[in-house]
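Why do we bother with a discrete structure alphabet at all? Because it lets us treat a fold like text: something you can write down, compare, and reason about line by line. To make this less abstract, here is a complete entry for Class II histone deacetylase. Read it the way you would read a sentence in a foreign language you are learning: slowly, and without expecting to understand everything at once.
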Amino acid sequence: MLRKTGFFFDELCFWHNSGLLHVMTFPVGGWVQPPNGAGHAESPETKRRMKNLMDVSGLSHSLQLRSAEPLDDATLRLVHTEDYLQRFLKPMYLSVG
């Protein structure tokens, strides 16, 4: 069966930090995953739960499961303005996103 719909995901995307989270004394990011039950709906566990439900329901079998390498700045600038990239990246530089 030809699968026409793709689902792009990566474990590191599940680690998105929606605020100033810390694990013990370490800020979330890099190799430090946000804690389980971090108190926000936008947590690694809610995204992982969705992916697991897709797997057990069989939905994943009808999708093209994909991942992608991070893009460099030059590639991002092919489709985004410098202003957009600065606004998008600002929370990351402030360690809040």
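What the structure line is telling us, in plain words: Strands lie at 6-8, 22-23, 26-27, 64-66. The mean pLDDT is 80.
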